[in-house]
Design a protein that fits this description.
Layout (H helix, E strand, L loop, with lengths): L53 E6 L7 H15 L3 E6 L5 H13 L3 H22 L3 H28 L4 H8 L1 H16 L4 E4 L6 E2 L10 H17 L3 E5 L2 E4 L4 E3 L5 H11 L4 E6 L20 E3 H9 L10 H7 L3 E5 L8 E4 L11 E5 L2 E7 L9 H11 L4 E6 L5 E7 H14 L1 H5 L5 E5 L2 E7 L9 H11 L6 E4 L5 E7 L3 H11 L32
Parallel strand pairs: 1-2, 1-8, 2-5, 3-5, 4-6, 8-10, 9-11
Antiparallel strand pairs: 6-7, 10-11, 12-17, 13-15, 13-16, 14-15, 17-19, 18-19
Helix pairs in contact: 1-3, 1-6, 2-3, 2-4, 2-5, 3-4, 3-6, 4-6, 7-8, 8-10, 11-12, 14-15
Bound molecules: adenosine-5'-diphosphate (ADP), aspartic acid and magnesium ion (MG).
Magnesium ion binds next to loops.
């Protein structure tokens, strides 16, 4: 556990003696104002006490989409810093990572004009935000120069890719990482401008990963060592570290990314590495909802949910959370909250080890449209040696996760669902692995169907509840939605079924209605209330396995 103030001397020995207390000074200190920057050199170093929790607060792309969003983020951080020690994790401005990947792909095709156009758009977007955010010429010029250096770095990487006509995974990561490296310094600068001591830190200094570009995995021991060594001293001095989300670095120091949407994962990795009291994912919706609100309009807020259920939802398509983001915090019992940057008075969703067990049934739905189904089949399948073992060995070798697997009762067919991005490669590798069986016709076919999606029904112990699967089939049947395959029983809290992509919305609406998920009420909280989620609640809801 993190060290706290020594009560014997009433002062943290690691804090400077002249350390200022925000609370002690609050009568004199003007409330944070976006228009009133603190006098130069004057910073509210945050007060630390026995009861001061450490919170990791991650802000997603829409939360930092432009200057006014960044101001709002700064206000949330400033308010939270009155009660908590903070580490902030920042995503790229909305749409920026997509544009960078577009530039990377255009460079591979040698399209220099398109690359130049992307960089000119990005310069304009970031320049506009910087100009309206930062009033001090010196501070603005300093950040502006850093940004120009990053743009030049990106352009050089794209030029190298143009020359080679090859986009290596390493270059793709380096190019797509620029968004976070551009946005985080702006947020740190706006905090400083508002009088909160802050420092931008690149996560390459903190998160140590393997070298699997585009989806790197953290090495937690090294990450823990580096993060504590780099961040604890700042926290203890009352400085808020603002960390670039999405990225890490291999042990050799080469930049890696954690996969699309990976800033959530950065936050939970850092939360675990620093043994934080809570991780808060600030986004553009009220929390985790009973279904994707873009598809189901009356989706409702879930006020509390278990790690297990939230992990199932994230894994099966609830974009609000990166699929792996629950893994680190689950191991340590650290609560995770999802909250709305644009409605900070709302409580959001709290994700805890046990969740809310009295919901009685289905908690929420998720849909994964980025999926494809591979079918291995033929009457001779039963005679093919170790089909499942060889299938899994093949998918593991190319790191393609099998999202769902089903076998026909006659054992003539096996179908597995993988993400669309892995589908073609998985098909090729399986055809290679079973080439002998295909040529001797013990296997008839290995085929790919890219028109499918997975819909998941998630709930506490949904497996053990009688009639759930029947109700799903009946509800879908009424909407003429065919169930192509189904996985029921592997997970206690999830029933997943495969439908045609075109039927996803109808399937979600039917299941949402069937399980009456649209009838819950979202609680609200005043921002300043001591019961607000950032007010410290010392007990953890779950066990810490350590
Ligand atoms: P951020 O930029 O903050 O990381 P994302 O776009 O990655 O935000 O995730 C938030 C979005 O996830 C929401 O705007 C919503 O459209 C989508 N979403 C999908 N499923 C759910 C769900 N079950 N609950 C909440 N949001 C969901
Ligand atoms: N900027 C990255 C992405 O768009 C990571 C994130 O936003 O979480 O995928
Ligand atoms: Mg996201």
């Amino acid at each position: 556990m993190r060290s706290k103030v020594n009560p014997e001397i009433g002062h943290n020995p690691r804090l400077p003696r002249n350390h200022r207390s925000l609370h002690a000074d609050s009568a004199r200190t003007p409330a944070f104002s976006t228009h009133l920057p603190a006098p130069a050199g004057e910073h509210e170093h945050v007060h630390r006490s026995l009861q001061r929790p450490l919170r990791i607060m991650k802000f997603g792309g829409t939360s930092v989409a432009d200057a006014s969003c960044m101001q709002r983020v700064a206000e949330i951080i400033h308010t939270a810093a009155r009660e908590s020690d903070l580490v902030v994790v920042i995503s790229a401005m909305s749409g920026v990572t997509n544009k960078l990947i577009e530039a990377a792909l255009q460079s591979e095709s040698g399209n220099r004009e398109a690359v130049a156009q992307v960089f000119s758009q990005l310069r304009a977007q970031h320049g506009a935000a910087l100009t309206s955010l930062i009033q001090s010429d010196t501070r603005r010029n300093r950040i502006g120069q850093q940004m120009q250096e990053l743009f030049r770095e990106g352009e050089r990487l794209c030029e190298g890719t143009c020359l080679l006509h090859e986009l290596t995974p390493r270059a793709r990561d380096a190019i797509s990482s620029l968004g976070e490296r551009l946005s985080a310094p702006m947020v740190a600068a706006v905090l400083e401008q508002g009088g909160l001591a802050s420092q931008c830190i690149e996560a390459t200094e903190l998160i140590v990963t393997d070298s699997y570009y585009g989806g790197a995995e953290p090495w937690m021991d090294l990450t823990r060592e580096r993060s504590s060594a780099r961040l604890q001293p700042l926290i203890e001095q009352g400085i808020v570290p603002v960390v670039t989300g999405f990225i890490g670095a291999s042990e050799e120091g080469v930049l890696t990314t954690l996969g699309r949407g990976g800033s959530d994962y950065s936050a939970t990795i850092l939360g675990t590495a620093l043994d934080a009291d809570e991780v808060i994912i600030w986004t553009d919706v009220d929390g985790l909802l009973t279904a994707d609100p873009r598809l189901v309009q009356d989706a409702c807020l879930i006020s509390e949910i278990s790690y297990r259920e939230a992990a199932e939802l994230a894994y099966f398509g609830a974009k609000v959370l990166h699929p792996k983001s629950l893994q680190p915090v689950m191991q340590r019992g650290i609560p995770l909250r999802i909250r709305n940057t644009f409605a900070p008075e709302k409580l959001g969703t709290k994700i805890t080890p046990v969740g809310c067990t009295d919901t009685g049934g289905v908690t929420a739905l998720a849909a994964l449209t980025d999926a494809a189904m591979i079918t291995i089949g033929g009457p001779g399948l039963l005679g093919v040696q170790d089909v499942l073992g060889r299938t899994f060995a093949t998918t593991v070798a190319i790191r393609a996760t099998v999202l769902l697997i089903a076998q026909s009762s006659s054992q003539n067919d096996i179908c597995l669902v993988v993400s669309s991005s892995h589908a073609k490669r998985t098909l090729e590798e399986l055809r290679h692995e079973f080439s002998h069986d295909l040529s001797h016709e013990t296997l008839e076919h290995i085929t790919l169907d890219s028109t499918v999606a997975i819909v998941s029904v998630v709930g506490h112990k949904v497996r053990g509840m009688s009639g759930v699967a029947g109700r799903i089939f009946a509800a879908l049947g009424r909407e003429n939605v065919d169930v192509i395959a189904m996985a029921h029983g592997a997970s206690a809290s999830n029933i997943s079924f495969v439908v045609a992509k075109k039927d996803v919305r109808a399937a979600l609406l039917a299941a949402h209605r069937e399980f009456q998920l649209g009838e819950q009420v979202s609680p609200t909280f005043p921002v300043s209330s001591s019961d607000a989620p950032w007010a410290y609640q010392p007990e953890r809801t779950g066990s810490n396995p350590d």
